[in-house]
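Pilot study result, target chain (2035 residues):
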Amino acid sequence: MWISSRFFVILLLLNLDNTCSEPFEAHLRGPGFVMEPPGRVEFSNSSGGWLDCSASGSPQPTVDWVHADGSAVTEIHGVRRVLRNGTLVLMPFAAAAYHQDVHNTIYRCIASNSVGRIVSRDVQVRAVVAQAYKVDVEVLSAARGCTAILRCVVPTFVKELVRVVSWVHEPAIYIYPSLQGDGKFHLLPTGELLIHNLQESDESQSFRCRSMHRLTRQVVVSSPTRLRINSHRGIISPSVVEHTAHVQVSQDEGAVLLCVAQGCPSPEYSWFTHNGAGPLPVLSGPRVRLLGPILAIEAVTGEDSGVYKCTAGNVGGEASAELRLTVATPIQVEISPNVLSVHMGGTAEFRCLVTSNGSPVGMQNILWYKDGRQLPSSGRVEDTLVVPRVSRENRGMYQCVVRRPEGDTFQATAELQLGDAPPVLLYSFIEQTLQPGPAVSLKCSAAGNPTPQISWTLDGFPLPSNGRFMIGQYITVHGDVISHVNISHVMVEDGGEYACIAENRAGRVQHAARLNIYGLPYIRLIPKVTAVSGETLNLKCPVAGYPIEEIHWERGGRELPDDIRQRVQPDGSLTISPVQKNSDSGVYTCWARNKQGHSARRSGEVTVIVPPSIEPFAFQEGLAEGMRTRTVCGVSRGDPPLKLIWLKDGDPLPDLLGANVTMLDQYSSLLSIPSLSATHSGEYTCVAKNPAAEIKYTALLQVKVPPRWIVEPVDANVERNRHIMLHCQAQGVPTPSIVWKKATGSKSGEYEEVRERPFTKLLGNGSLLLQHVKEDREGFYLCQANNGIGTGIGKVIQLKVNSSPYFSSTSRSVMVKKGDTALLQCAVSGDKPINIVWMRSGKNTLNPSTNYKISVKQEATPDGVSAELQIRTVDATDSGPYFCRASNLYGNDQQLVQLQVQEPPLPPSVLEAAMISSRSVNIKWQPKTLGTGDVTKYIVEFREADHSLPPALFVDQWQQIEVKDPPHFNAMIENLKPATRYAFRVIAEGSAGRSAPSQELIVRTEPQRPAGPPLSLSARPLSSTELLISWVAPLPELRHGDIQGYNVGYKLSSSGNTAYNFTSVSGDGDGGNGELLLSGLAKFARYTVVVQAFNQVGPGPLSEPTAAQTMEDVPSRPPEDVRCAALSSQSLQVSWQPPPIYHTNGLLQGYKLIFEPIIDDIQPSKDEVESRKTTALTMVLTGLRKYTNYSIQVLAHTRMGDGVVSKPLFCHSEEDVPEAPADIKVVSSSSQSLYISWLPPNEPNGVITKYSLYTRVVNGREELNNEKRSLPSQQAYYEAKGLHPHMEYQFWVTASTRVGEGKSSRVSSQITTNRIPARIISFGGPVVRPWRSTVTLPCTAVGKPKREWFKSDVALRQGGLHNSQLLDSGDLIISSLQLADGGNYSCQVDNGIGTDRLTHTLIVQVPPTAPVLYVTSATSSSILMHWKCGFTGNAPITGYTLFYRRANGNTDEMQLSRHASSHELKGLMCGSTYQIHLSAQNKVGTSPTSTILHVRTQGQSPGHPASTALLAPNSTSLLVRLHSWPDNGCPLLYFVLQYRAVTDDPDAEWVLVSNALKPQRRIVVNNLQPSTLYQLRMEAHNVAGISQAEFNFVTLTKDGDPPPPEIMHRGRSGQTTVIFANINLLIPTIAAVSGMFCTIIMIIVCYRHKQSQIQKESLENRANSEAAQRERYYATIHKVSMQNNDKIPETSEDISPYATFQLSEAGGNMSQPHHGGPANTLLHSFMYHERALAEGCSSPPPAASKNRRRHSRKTEPESEESESDQDQLTSSRTESSNQHEGKIKHSIIYHGAQSSTSSDLSPMSEQKSLPRRGRSRYHHQQYQFSTNTTPRHHNSNKMNNNTTSNTNTTATNTTATPSTSSNSNKILSPRGGNLKSISSTFKSQDSIQCHIPTLVKSPSISTQQQKQFHKQQLQNSSTNNSQHSSSNPNSSSLKQQQPLLITPKLHQLEANGQELLGLDGIGNSPLVACMPPSSQFRPIPHKSIMPAHEPPHHHNHSQQSHPHQQQQQQHPGTLLNPSTAMLSSKFFTAPTLPK
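Predicted structure:
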């Protein structure tokens, strides 16, 4: 056991040594990338690709690849391989083998070793699957003499991978890209081919484009393409067809900016830079070349980046484009420091240095990584990474990654090493005192860097080596060392001071404490001690035993100390300082004694050793190569044995050094070097050591070496604009410095030092890099190397620059007048000899011998050659490009000289007015010049153009202004007169003279802004958020033009803001009155309102302000801070704060408190919701349920009603004492025991805490005993045992809560007996359970009886019910409960002694049934609905869910309160159909949904306006009054307006004015021709649909007169004149017309004969019903007043089926326009013809259905109506609308606004019947069911007389219809006799109530007027059939005052076996159904009340729509009949007649 333990300790120590030493070996170095993969790799699938990655480090790092998510990259056979050297190979693959995660993904390279790990940048790999493609050629042709452009069109899927390499000029001329073309052809770097100076011969030439795939190197050639030359010879202004918008290059690279424009003549290019304050022209320089469409910049720098502008111009104008150049400057990233050593616990700080060309770069996106993982941003402060409290986990590799916005990344790596940290003791042992025998364990823990080693001592000496001691230590994962000393059986001699010493190379630390073992003194063996002279010796006495009284030291029989250097410490140790060899060596004795006098002694020897000391030595100065040197290392003192060794630079002397070491004696060593060289320089160290110490001494030896060449410079040649490296490297000691100099003149002249500057780089190895070498770099260069040893060395070399010819600028232009001599010059630089050739258009060499007009001259210059070309007597044919081409041995270059021959300019064209104001006109024009004539200025002439004066008076009256410097194409003429006609013309002037004047332009100046404010401003409130503002236009003399509209400004009067909020209102242009409805205002707030008028110029002055206040409203916010506190068990105190003052919306009248208990009854017998009102801010609620949770809500109310209710606040009343237990039973369970059971209280009033059972023993009347027993609250039974037999016991029970004990139950008594009758202990009563659950009905009994169960007196047997089970205990279990399982369950017990019976009432709760939903009313944006709840499912309703959706829309749902029985859906779409259904919920579940109702909101698609009201033509414009377009209830969204002139071509194109014209008052269509017939097409759009209309109009003459009659005749008759002029067409035409005329006569004769028969029959029917016509029933509704916020019904859908609303009355004449305000009242009456009642039939469905469906076709796809179907039942129509189908075409308009409104009557359901609130105009249209009043702005003389005719004819036809019903139970049959009146007939109590959905309005008239009107109806019935709409105009005034009598129809219907009355008016009124009284609403299917046959049609224009009306009869949906209310005048009642 001891051997294995010691072996374990040794293994631990060995392991510790290895672990501690490994991380701190000096050769370890973290990984670093030698080759980092690029950021982007592209390859084709046919070639494959590879990614190289290698790294260095110590140990050698391993290279791995990972994906972007960190997962390892694995090999895929045949697809991907990872080689051993770290290369990732992506093999070639087939197209089908493409994998996104392999071939288009991100890879990263990971290099890692034991120090750490680094990650490379993201490598985006993209594999391109080679695809076949073809290229085409696009030709941008041009005119002769101009430039054509050929584009190579590459498919987009390969465009970025394909570039154009060349063009082929057929058959075999190759054109390659160049910065400058050859004059004729120029292939741009981007691939476009420019062909200059097109000629007719170029049309026969073919070109092909050659392209190459960048990855596959595949070359694809296009098919040949020929040029096309445009025949147009005019000027074409330039347009940029191609430009490089963004060019990105790296620094020191070349940049090419391209800008290609097409124009004729060929444009000239100018380049500008926008990098400064303004645009600066780009000039040619050493690095910048301007090559027409190309700007080339060599060796770009960061200063070149920015925005460049290219301008291409010719005489026709100019075009420009902006280009951006981005120079990516390379950045260098470095981490400082790159290796950082920090002690543990210290702070490490790395800084990421980002520089570019040596200069720091601003803020970058910097990310830090540690061992390949990104660090959180918390440790980063800008570019600094701080690592606080460094621990072992922090060491490793750190990376700084800089990511630029361009996407490229740069990085640097640094290593964090742990520095040496001295040990620190983390844990140590304490002093202990023990008896001998037990085991002892001592523990020490230390940390440090390197990992410390722990050793143990006992009294300063090693631990005893015996089997009882065991030492063990290990290293934790954190690097801490833990060491143990275990003593298995401690003995007395083991006592002493134990010390643990932790030591590493950074220091040592120790801890000591005594282990005291009781026993006699004992001193262990003292080993031999060696001390070092001069140091301190501390000698401990190894004494054991405890306690020890004293310790003494002796030497030579003398007690120490006997010297001042000696001292005995209190712990008994001996200290000698300093130690001396002679006096302190010897034997020392230690003795110890305890109090009892027992003692022990032990002696030990001490020897003293002297450490060595080296004498200083040094090498002499100035040693050079070849010299000798020596030095001696001598030890001045020190005890042997001594050892002397030599080191060079810390390492032993190498054998190749050639140094000799000789030991002179044992104390000295000689180092000699016979021949010095550079390798001998360094530090030499002498090391002397003995057992005491090791001493070192170092001296420096430096051998001076003069410079010598490593790379000697040589002469060099370089081509111009190339780079060259001049190498110069030298070595020496010290290292020589390299200096470059350049000769200022000749080789032997002065030299000046070459310094670092742009394009001149001095490299660190001494080389000189010259970039973009020009001629100024040529010359002699001197390289000098010097290190201070000798004179140094130098070498002169010559640099020659071989210069090809070059020009200072690539192009220039020369202008010369026609007939002058042109002088073309060019100066070329370069190495001579230079040959110069002049060429025309790049291909024709100019030779004076063949062209007499030219002469050539050239002369030499210092830099090259200057050439000159003269052309005499130039003309336009000499214009064009000329090339000066220069060549020498090194290359060639050419310069373009553009010659322009100037000619006088042509007059400007397209003169127009760009801006017209009241006093100024801005005129613009376009130049019109041929050739190259230059315009220097323009002259604008103007004068007044008064056409009333003769032209002769205008001579010499032109005024002039000049436009020049530089000439623009516009001019501003000021100081004109407003509203005056002016004539303008422009003259162009150039160097060759003036042009002729342009055509004159006639312009009329604009008016000025109005000078007066609007008048009579008033504001009145309409609602709480609306004010109606009205005003009158300014005075006519102050308008200053047509009033376009008004700006209405308003603001809160109480606000301190002086600014108004303005809203614009368009005007009608004629200065009429205006009004505006301001909505969305603050409620109950006072506003200040102003108005200003504006015209085309601007607004006028503001009016005087007026003030008005909005009406009160209900509060919009609930009371705040609602709180509740329980005062008692039946009272709560509620407090609140008022709503915010800005949300009270009026004067608060008080508050309403709504509260209800939160209970869960089966079915609440009454509504528990209560409300109380108060004016205070607190209220105490009393009389509440005890201990009940209440829901409390508070609302504030004003005079207008209740506001928003607050969120429910739940408050609990306090506990109280409970009520008495509900019941108690006492039965005998044995002869000496009784069983007591009871029910809990019905009102526990709290949480039951216990029950108290009271027992009383009674013997006769004497109470023998009384006992109280407390039972837990969950126990409801008790069995009293051990009772006396035959004694009477009485029991009662009380329940207790936290408050106290409640009332007692009734007293139940029982006498103990030996006979135990059968009794049931359980209680019966109601049992409530949800469906599908399980219930247990108990029947626990005593007396061991026989049990029987009954359900409703029917016995139950085991298995009798499929879901029931009878248990042996007597309980009945029913599972899967259903509603049918409810009922009474009885349990009967019998044991022969007694019997008992118990009944349970089981109530099963199920989901409720579907509620009955019906719709009450609908508006354009809301639907009001009610519902009745069905069966609640034996559980209270918890809420309702309303589902609704628009047709083809998504279903929305809404949660409603359980108390709600109605709801109004708001915010709906106008004129849309909605599907609505409802479901109810209780706690069990949700009911089925109700029947889906299809309800349509009010509103239809727009109507059609009268053409005269809509259009007002002028001479050159058309005024369209958009406000006259009827919206039919749905606000208009926008208009589409287009027009065209009416010509002989029926396919003439339409001119679109706007396809999204917002609704406004009016719009003007300009640019029309006078006296011209036009066709206008308009579309009006609203939510409900679209309406289209076409109108014809004729513009007035230029003088504003009506157009001549022949234009009108042409507009009406078309081409009749052509027919009459052709005799071949005239005869057949006459024959055809004659035949048609005869046919028409025959039809008229037959028609009149039939009509006379019908009229006769009609007169007889009227005579029979004359008595009934005398007594008509008028149901009159009066309304005394109407609030402004009351909704005025606008359509029939607004009117409730109850007909309970009231209409405002009107006083005065109904024919006058009126406003429906609060002060106005109207009297409306219902009038009926009872004779018109028919049996068994009903009118067709209401016309609104058809109209809605037709107009909603585009918004409701389910509509099946044809879009082209004409609406036969439409409301009001114009005269022309009665004659056309489809799109409405109106008559020609050229006059003022005259009404063409027809008097055709329309059903009220189709049109607005009352004026809309807040509108500026009120439509009073004539309805068949409504008041026949005169519409506003309509001509009353245009009334149609067929109204009465149609009415009477309908009545006649209806009456004559034979009855088709055989039912004997007939109602109100007209055949049975004349009914006196409706009012006299409907008197029975058993009545039928008729719901009238449409109220019919009529003015208040007398009975005499009614009779008179009826007579007139009878008289006109026989004549109106043959009359058309044009009747006697004098009768219209009478008809306006007469009421229109309505003939109702009574239909006999059947629904559910009952007869119903159908009441219907004539025409197209909605169907009316009459139902018997009922308490519930019942939906009646629409099909059940369809007419038996179709009634006759009423209108003449609707006869052709007969098939469509038949389609309308099958109308989908459900007609809902609401439940009846109390009988009143709002309903018609009819008695149920006897059979």
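One observation from the pilot: The mean pLDDT is 78. A full batch analysis is planned for the follow-on phase.
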